[in-house]
Structure formats: C-alpha cells, structure tokens
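Support request from a user on the community tier.

User writes: "When I paste my structure tokens into the form, the page sometimes reloads and wipes my input. The last time it worked, I copied everything first. Here is what I submitted, just in case something in the input itself triggers the reload:"
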C-alpha cells in the first residue's frame, strides 16, 4: 500500500485503508451518540475486530499481517476522522501491541499471548498511571509480589481507558516490593486474572467514548507474564515513539474531519452565489495549509522512527526522544488551530449542534490533545534533554 504524504517501509499485500472503510462508516454513524452519552463505541470496535485490524501489526507467523507503523497510523487517522474516541482506542491498543512485538518475542508466554490476540482479536488496555505519582509513567508505587511461579499486584490506577471493555491490561509496577519506584516492569494480564473496582468516573468535555475511568486493579497471574525487559527499555525503545506517532495520527484524523466540514460549507456557499467568492475561502486555504503541516510532521516522525529502528544507538539517543516529543507537541498544538479555523469558516452553522457542519465534538476532542500527556510536562522534560543534546534538526537528519 502506498499513499501520498507518508513513507512506507514495506508494502503488505492487504490494502488496510480499504479494510477500514466499513469500520470508519460505522464509527461515523454512532459518533454523536458515543459523544453525547459518553459510552464505549462498541459498534465501531466490533467492526474493527471483524476486519481483523486489531492484530494487523503482528507478524504473519503469529496470525497478524506484518503491517508497518505507517499502515497503523493511516488506519488510525481514518477512524479518528469519523470518531475521535474510536481512533484513540484503536491507537492505544496498537501502542500496547507494539510493546509486545518489540519486547515479547523472547518469551514463550508472550508469544502465545500474541497468537491469542490475533485469533480472538483481543483489545488491549493500559494501566501506567497511578495515584501518588501524577502523570509520571516512569515511576510506580505498586509492586509485583512473586511467590514461586505465581505473582500478584494491586494498583490504584487513576486512569485505565476502556477498562471494562478490554480483554487484557498491560500494567506497570515496581519489580519487587524492595525496588525503587523507577525500577519498573510491565506485565500482561488477561481478563480472567484481574478484578476492577471503579474509583472515578469519566465525565469530560471530549474523548468521552474512551471511558478513561480510575480503578483499583487487583491481579493474580503467572510470573512468566512479566516482560523480560525492564519497562525503562520498553518505554524508550517502543512506547514513547509509538504513543506520540499514533496519538498524532488521531489528531490528524480530527483535523481532517473538521476541514472536510469546513470545505463542504464553503462549497455550499459558492453554489448559492456562483458570482461571489465565499468569505471563508481564505481561511479554508489557511486551514488546509496547517493540515498539510500536520501531515508532514507525522510523516517525518515516521521516517525518523524507521531510521532509528535500524540503529539501536539511535533508538536510545536523546535526539530521538527530542524528535518524537516534537511530533507530539506540534501536532497537538496545530490541531486546535485547524479546528478553530474550521469553526470560523462555518460560523454559527459550526457552532450549533444540529447542523451538518457542527464542529462542537471536534473542538472538544481537540482540546484533549495538549493535555494527554501534558505539553507543559513534555516541554519541561524537553528542556532538560536539550541541555545534553543539540537543538538543530537538519533536513533528512
């Protein structure tokens, strides 16, 4: 598959964009209701599973289709254009799957788990945040307690998105009770191995369908379900990059949807008065230019990811972390500008909730982008990284 604006690593036989069309249509049909009621987008996720897109990134030997991260990014964008919550759920699942692929292939248990994901189109959730540490993913309060071949943990997770609808949860914890907070591991826990006690609700401006509630996660599992590599390596070598790239794909999808509504509005105005240029034409051109910049930012980030993946030193380099952070920062900030432009173009028709040009859902979803993970937190970390790294970004470098 090859599409303009992205760099493709390898071209799988399957056209994933064609495969996602039906799921995107289902997501669009139910998007307003998902947003209004704040419910999980069960119809869209069911359609995604039917299209076997949950396992698209897994190796063929494990039942997947060897899809590249670019393929996943394009599918994510297509879904998010229809329903941001659906796109974000799909992205978060694929972020967890990328960690399994990158760091679980030396473990028989994790290999079998990946086969089960493909066979059952299982949905993966994430439990990385925790009460007492804020949004700092690189520290844990809870710990894995191991007794022989069995282990357990209890985690006060402030957020586990779509936990009640997930088939498994990948959770972080200290390696053992005596370990420092930064000595973390990640463990894959299946639905039959954990219990959830809800601690917070999810009543938000946007991204309402992700159902990102808080829970006490209590789990008992096999000791071999703990990933062989430390979570520090998992975060640096796969989770950081895939999170920023796939979240940015969600935001590109939201921007695409908003600009499409603005363009339809301008075209309608032009048809009403063929001899008069619609006043929104200039802003539409500006919005389209910003959309192009968002797409180029993501494409360059994917290129950088592919280069780093071929070079372990680059993958662990400070410069790579800086580049991935910049993709997230730029995409999340540009999204709000694009949606605001679309709202100015559509005017009151975009402001109302009962017109084909309504942009309320897009605007509210867009404002989640700088908050997950907080841009202020990333910028502070970025400043620290730049004390030991060059700030220049040469073309092609």
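"...and here is what came back when it finally went through:"
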């Amino acid at each position: 598959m090859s599409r303009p604006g992205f760099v493709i690593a390898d071209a799988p036989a399957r056209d994933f964009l064609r495969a996602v069309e039906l799921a995107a249509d289902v997501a669009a049909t139910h998007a307003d209701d998902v947003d209004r009621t704040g419910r999980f987008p069960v119809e869209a996720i069911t359609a995604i599973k039917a299209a076997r897109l949950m396992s698209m990134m897994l190796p063929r030997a494990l039942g997947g289709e060897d899809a590249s991260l670019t393929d996943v990014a394009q599918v994510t964008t297509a879904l998010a254009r229809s329903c941001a919550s659906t796109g974000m759920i799909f992205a978060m699942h694929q972020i967890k799957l990328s960690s399994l692929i990158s760091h679980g292939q030396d473990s028989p248990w994790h290999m079998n788990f990946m086969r089960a994901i493909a066979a059952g189109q299982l949905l993966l959730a994430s439990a990385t945040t925790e009460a007492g540490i804020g949004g700092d993913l690189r520290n844990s309060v809870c710990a894995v307690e191991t007794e022989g071949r069995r282990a357990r943990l209890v985690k006060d997770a402030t957020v586990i998105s779509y936990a009640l609808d997930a088939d498994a949860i990948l959770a972080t914890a200290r390696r053992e009770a005596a370990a420092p907070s930064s000595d973390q591991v990640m463990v894959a826990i299946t639905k039959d191995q954990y219990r959830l006690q809800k601690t917070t609700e999810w009543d938000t401006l946007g991204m309402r369908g992700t159902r990102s509630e808080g829970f006490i996660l209590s789990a008992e599992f096999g000791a071999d379900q703990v990933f062989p590599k430390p979570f520090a390596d998992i975060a640096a070598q796969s989770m950081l990059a895939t999170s920023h790239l796939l979240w940015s794909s969600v935001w590109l999808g939201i921007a695409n949807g908003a600009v499409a509504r603005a363009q339809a509005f301008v075209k309608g105005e032009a048809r009403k008065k063929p001899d008069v240029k619609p006043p929104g034409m200039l802003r539409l051109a500006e919005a389209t230019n910003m959309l192009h910049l968002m797409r180029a930012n993501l494409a360059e980030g994917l290129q950088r990811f592919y280069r780093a993946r071929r070079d372990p030193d680059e993958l662990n380099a400070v410069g790579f972390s800086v580049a991935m952070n910049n993709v997230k920062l730029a995409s999340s900030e540009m999204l709000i500008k694009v949606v605001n432009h679309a709202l100015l173009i559509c005017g009151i028709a975009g402001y109302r909730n009962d017109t084909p040009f309504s942009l309320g859902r897009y605007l509210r979803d867009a404002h989640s982008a700088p908050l997950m993970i907080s841009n202020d937190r990333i910028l502070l970390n970025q400043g620290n990284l730049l004390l030991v790294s060059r700030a220049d970004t040469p073309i092609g470098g």
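Agent notes: The reload is a front-end session timeout and is unrelated to the input. The beta strands are 124-127, 145-147, 150-161, 168-174, 184-190, 194-200, 212-222. The two ends are 25 Å apart (CA to CA). Escalated to web team.
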